[in-house]
Amino acid sequence: MTWYCDVAPGHPVHGPYHDEEYGFPLVDDRALFERLSLEIFQAGLSWLIVLKKRPALVAAFDGFDPAVVAAYGEAEVERLMNDAGIIRNRRKIAATIENARLLLMIQASHGSLAAWIAAHHPLAKPQWIKLFKQSFVFMGGEVVGEFLMSIGYLPNAHREDCPAFARIKALNPPWMAVGTAFYG
Protein backbone atom coordinates (compact mmCIF):
# COMPACT_ATOMS: atom_id res chain seq x y z
CA MET A 1 0.00 0.00 0.00
CA THR A 2 1.32 3.42 -0.95
CA TRP A 3 0.52 6.12 1.58
CA TYR A 4 0.35 9.85 0.96
CA CYS A 5 3.03 9.93 3.67
CA ASP A 6 5.39 8.15 1.24
CA VAL A 7 5.15 10.72 -1.53
CA ALA A 8 4.02 14.05 -0.08
CA PRO A 9 6.67 15.12 2.48
CA GLY A 10 9.15 17.47 0.87
CA HIS A 11 7.06 17.89 -2.28
CA PRO A 12 6.53 21.61 -2.98
CA VAL A 13 2.76 21.23 -3.53
CA HIS A 14 1.73 18.03 -1.73
CA GLY A 15 4.04 18.59 1.26
CA PRO A 16 2.30 21.56 2.90
CA TYR A 17 -1.16 20.00 2.48
CA HIS A 18 0.04 16.65 3.86
CA ASP A 19 1.92 18.19 6.76
CA GLU A 20 -0.59 20.84 7.87
CA GLU A 21 -4.09 19.96 6.65
CA TYR A 22 -4.72 16.36 5.62
CA GLY A 23 -6.32 14.42 8.46
CA PHE A 24 -6.38 17.35 10.88
CA PRO A 25 -9.74 18.00 12.57
CA LEU A 26 -11.64 20.77 10.82
CA VAL A 27 -14.78 22.50 12.06
CA ASP A 28 -15.01 25.82 10.18
CA ASP A 29 -17.92 25.64 7.71
CA ARG A 30 -16.20 27.72 5.05
CA ALA A 31 -13.13 25.48 5.22
CA LEU A 32 -15.30 22.35 5.24
CA PHE A 33 -17.17 23.56 2.17
CA GLU A 34 -13.88 24.33 0.43
CA ARG A 35 -12.51 20.87 1.24
CA LEU A 36 -15.69 19.12 0.09
CA SER A 37 -15.68 21.15 -3.13
CA LEU A 38 -12.01 20.41 -3.79
CA GLU A 39 -12.73 16.69 -3.43
CA ILE A 40 -15.49 17.05 -6.03
CA PHE A 41 -13.15 18.91 -8.39
CA GLN A 42 -10.58 16.14 -7.93
CA ALA A 43 -12.91 13.39 -9.20
CA GLY A 44 -11.22 11.88 -12.24
CA LEU A 45 -8.15 14.09 -11.86
CA SER A 46 -4.99 14.03 -9.78
CA TRP A 47 -4.89 15.68 -6.38
CA LEU A 48 -1.80 17.55 -7.58
CA ILE A 49 -3.87 19.34 -10.24
CA VAL A 50 -6.43 20.36 -7.61
CA LEU A 51 -3.78 21.62 -5.19
CA LYS A 52 -2.09 23.63 -7.94
CA LYS A 53 -5.43 25.18 -8.93
CA ARG A 54 -6.61 25.65 -5.34
CA PRO A 55 -5.72 29.36 -5.04
CA ALA A 56 -7.57 30.11 -8.29
CA LEU A 57 -10.55 28.00 -7.20
CA VAL A 58 -10.72 29.79 -3.85
CA ALA A 59 -10.62 33.17 -5.58
CA ALA A 60 -13.12 32.18 -8.28
CA PHE A 61 -15.60 30.80 -5.73
CA ASP A 62 -15.43 33.87 -3.44
CA GLY A 63 -13.39 32.08 -0.79
CA PHE A 64 -15.92 29.21 -0.81
CA ASP A 65 -18.28 31.29 1.30
CA PRO A 66 -21.38 29.06 1.20
CA ALA A 67 -23.84 31.97 1.36
CA VAL A 68 -22.18 33.75 -1.56
CA VAL A 69 -21.79 30.62 -3.69
CA ALA A 70 -25.40 29.56 -3.00
CA ALA A 71 -26.57 32.79 -4.64
CA TYR A 72 -24.69 32.14 -7.89
CA GLY A 73 -26.75 32.17 -11.05
CA GLU A 74 -26.09 31.56 -14.72
CA ALA A 75 -23.82 34.62 -15.03
CA GLU A 76 -21.49 33.23 -12.36
CA VAL A 77 -21.54 29.78 -13.97
CA GLU A 78 -20.48 31.34 -17.29
CA ARG A 79 -17.80 33.39 -15.53
CA LEU A 80 -16.44 30.20 -13.95
CA MET A 81 -16.60 28.27 -17.23
CA ASN A 82 -14.48 31.00 -18.82
CA ASP A 83 -11.88 31.07 -16.02
CA ALA A 84 -8.81 29.27 -17.39
CA GLY A 85 -7.26 29.19 -13.90
CA ILE A 86 -9.78 26.70 -12.50
CA ILE A 87 -11.06 23.23 -13.34
CA ARG A 88 -13.78 24.07 -15.85
CA ASN A 89 -16.25 21.25 -15.56
CA ARG A 90 -19.87 22.38 -15.71
CA ARG A 91 -21.15 19.44 -13.64
CA LYS A 92 -18.60 20.06 -10.89
CA ILE A 93 -19.31 23.79 -10.88
CA ALA A 94 -23.07 23.14 -10.72
CA ALA A 95 -22.53 20.61 -7.91
CA THR A 96 -20.50 23.14 -5.92
CA ILE A 97 -23.26 25.74 -6.23
CA GLU A 98 -26.01 23.25 -5.35
CA ASN A 99 -23.99 21.94 -2.40
CA ALA A 100 -23.65 25.49 -1.09
CA ARG A 101 -27.45 25.74 -1.14
CA LEU A 102 -27.81 22.37 0.58
CA LEU A 103 -25.19 23.36 3.15
CA LEU A 104 -27.25 26.46 4.02
CA MET A 105 -30.22 24.18 4.75
CA ILE A 106 -28.02 22.02 6.99
CA GLN A 107 -26.81 25.14 8.78
CA ALA A 108 -30.43 26.17 9.34
CA SER A 109 -31.34 22.79 10.83
CA HIS A 110 -28.13 21.97 12.73
CA GLY A 111 -26.38 25.31 13.26
CA SER A 112 -23.39 24.36 11.10
CA LEU A 113 -22.09 21.72 8.74
CA ALA A 114 -19.57 20.79 11.42
CA ALA A 115 -22.40 20.18 13.92
CA TRP A 116 -24.29 18.11 11.34
CA ILE A 117 -21.25 15.91 10.73
CA ALA A 118 -20.59 15.58 14.46
CA ALA A 119 -24.24 14.65 15.08
CA HIS A 120 -23.87 11.64 12.77
CA HIS A 121 -20.52 10.43 14.15
CA PRO A 122 -19.57 7.63 14.34
CA LEU A 123 -20.61 5.94 11.14
CA ALA A 124 -18.78 3.36 9.09
CA LYS A 125 -17.72 4.55 5.63
CA PRO A 126 -20.68 2.95 3.78
CA GLN A 127 -23.14 4.74 6.06
CA TRP A 128 -21.27 8.04 5.63
CA ILE A 129 -21.46 7.62 1.86
CA LYS A 130 -25.20 6.93 2.01
CA LEU A 131 -25.77 9.98 4.23
CA PHE A 132 -23.75 12.29 1.99
CA LYS A 133 -25.46 10.99 -1.15
CA GLN A 134 -28.83 11.77 0.47
CA SER A 135 -27.71 15.23 1.57
CA PHE A 136 -25.47 16.58 -1.21
CA VAL A 137 -24.83 16.10 -4.93
CA PHE A 138 -21.85 14.60 -6.79
CA MET A 139 -21.08 12.34 -3.85
CA GLY A 140 -19.24 9.14 -4.65
CA GLY A 141 -17.36 6.85 -2.33
CA GLU A 142 -13.98 8.42 -3.03
CA VAL A 143 -15.24 11.99 -2.63
CA VAL A 144 -16.93 11.20 0.69
CA GLY A 145 -14.16 8.96 2.00
CA GLU A 146 -11.35 11.39 1.20
CA PHE A 147 -13.33 14.35 2.53
CA LEU A 148 -14.00 12.62 5.85
CA MET A 149 -10.46 11.29 6.12
CA SER A 150 -9.10 14.75 5.37
CA ILE A 151 -11.09 16.34 8.22
CA GLY A 152 -10.41 13.68 10.86
CA TYR A 153 -13.63 11.65 10.72
CA LEU A 154 -12.16 8.53 9.10
CA PRO A 155 -8.81 6.94 9.98
CA ASN A 156 -5.78 6.21 7.81
CA ALA A 157 -4.88 9.67 6.56
CA HIS A 158 -1.32 9.00 7.77
CA ARG A 159 0.88 6.10 8.77
CA GLU A 160 1.45 5.94 12.51
CA ASP A 161 5.17 6.65 12.04
CA CYS A 162 4.47 9.83 10.07
CA PRO A 163 5.28 13.04 12.00
CA ALA A 164 1.88 14.47 10.98
CA PHE A 165 0.17 11.51 12.67
CA ALA A 166 1.63 12.50 16.05
CA ARG A 167 0.38 16.08 15.66
CA ILE A 168 -3.07 14.85 14.63
CA LYS A 169 -3.19 12.33 17.49
CA ALA A 170 -2.57 15.16 19.97
CA LEU A 171 -5.72 16.87 18.61
CA ASN A 172 -7.83 13.74 19.27
CA PRO A 173 -9.67 13.62 15.94
CA PRO A 174 -13.19 12.19 15.94
CA TRP A 175 -12.18 8.83 14.44
CA MET A 176 -9.75 8.28 17.29
CA ALA A 177 -12.55 8.43 19.86
CA VAL A 178 -13.95 5.15 18.53
CA GLY A 179 -10.71 3.62 17.27
CA THR A 180 -9.75 2.05 13.98
CA ALA A 181 -11.40 -1.30 14.82
CA PHE A 182 -14.83 0.38 14.51
CA TYR A 183 -14.12 1.24 10.88
CA GLY A 184 -13.14 -2.33 10.01
Automatic annotation (TrEMBL):
InterPro entries: Adenine_glyco, DNA-3mA_glycosylase, DNA_glycosylase
Pfam families membership: Adenine_glyco (PF03352)
Gene Ontology BP, a term: base-excision repair
Keywords tagged on the record: Metal-binding, Zinc
Signal peptide region: none
GO molecular function: DNA-3-methyladenine glycosylase activity; metal ion binding
Gene3D superfamilies the record matches: Hypothetical protein, domain 2
Chain residues that bind Zn(2+): 5, 18
PANTHER family, A to Z: DNA-3-METHYLADENINE GLYCOSYLASE 1 (PTHR30037), DNA-3-METHYLADENINE GLYCOSYLASE I (PTHR30037:SF4)
Protein name as it appears in the record: DNA-3-methyladenine glycosylase
UniProt source species: Paramagnetospirillum kuznetsovii
